[in-house]
Amino acid sequence: MNSALCIIIVPLVTFMAAFVQGASGFGFGLVCMALFLDFMGVRDASVIVTCCTFCLNLVILSKLYKHFQWKGIVPLYLSVMIAIPIGVFFMAKADPVILKRIMGAVLILGGVYGVIPTLTKKKWHPVRAGIPCGFLSGLMAGAFSTGGPPLVAYLSTQRFSRYRYSATLQVMFFSASVLRMIMMQQFGLIRPGVILLAAVGMVTAVIGSAMGLKVLTRLSDKTVRLIAVVFLLIWGIRYVFL
Question: Are 33 and 145 in contact (CB under 8 A)?
Fold first, then answer.
């Protein structure tokens, strides 16, 4: 990892990813990981994204916490938390080349998910669907800091209000980021140089999110989603096949 280059790249990438998420709610972690892997390894990138996600979710949750309810999401929540250590263990021990290929596959899956208007109109059962969705999210979050798609897929079927839906996502992401940081510390993945980059990224991520909410509201959801999907598919194919 070129530290001098990354001190420029990290704030630019986190700003852009947060800017897009502020407008569309789409994949801060996915966008960051897609771009970071051109400049650093999966492990360092995951640490930076985890720290930035923690900061972003804390800011958003501070405004939405009153809309959060545990009813109907306990199986989902527990399965996420159980799977995260497994994902972190895999990231810490697996070959970096294999990690990059898998990350590419995750990006492609995220892009494919983005082009499906609705996975089903039927409300998914909190246990039969919540547990596998939560477990998959935890694995992806632990390994690559990209656990959003399975959670969004499940929660979008639960008929929550807009505010409860957003608050639930933030609780999930915030809890996951805390556990990921603890596990990463246990595996010795958090280094002083990476923490410095993460601190810079946190500041620009918060700024980017706020600006995205104000500026990109003029674009339609369809346009923003299309841009994000094309981006994820291109970078995912790069990492898998190139």
Answer: yes
Give the pTM: 0.77
Give long-range contacts, CB 8 A cutoff, 24+ apart: 127-133: 127/75, 129/154, 129/157, 130/73, 130/75, 130/76, 130/79, 130/154, 131/75, 131/76, 131/79, 132/79, 133/76, 133/79
Q: Where are the domains of the chain?
A: 3-241
pLDDT in tens, the chain (242 residues): 667 778 889 999 999 888 877 665 567 888 898 889 888 888 889 899 999 988 888 887 887 889 899 988 999 999 999 999 999 998 888 887 787 788 678 778 766 766 665 544 556 676 777 888 889 889 888 888 878 777 877 887 787 887 888 888 889 988 999 999 999 888 888 888 888 899 999 999 989 888 876 765 666 656 666 666 777 677 778 778 86
Residue matched to tokens 């992806």: 140
